[in-house]
Amino acid sequence: QVQLVESGGGLVQAGGSLRLSCAASGLTFSSCAVGWFRQAPGKERESVGVTRWSDSTNYADSVKGRFTISRDNAKNTVYLQMSSLKPDDTGVYYCAATKPYSYEYNSWGQGTQVTVSS
Fold first, then answer.
1. What is the pLDDT of residues 104-116, one digit of tens each?
2. Of 44, 46, 71, 87, which is least surrounded by CB within 10 A?
3. What is the per-residue DSSP string for 48-94?
């Protein structure tokens, strides 16, 4: 059974930084794409970025240059380093994973709240 657990959320002032973690069990991250998503109150969920099995990464325009996704395959964990945070970055952040060498997300974490105060 696949389980993804996010951690690292919290309250931070604008301009600050946070690092989120997504730890997996029942799945080997090194062969999967792992994406980060967020959902703000009253808004639809949006993609923040993704890291693929090839170690390539892509980011939403709104976070480019501020957020970085990395992975530690030995720990089966993917990280989202967030810097220069803005109030608009507030929301629940989720990680999701695909099956090996696939593009469809089929496993999701429970989410972690990130609140950026102005």
1. 999 999 999 999 9
2. 44
3. EEEE-TTS-EEE-TTTTTTEEEEEETTTTEEEEEE-S--GGG-EEEE
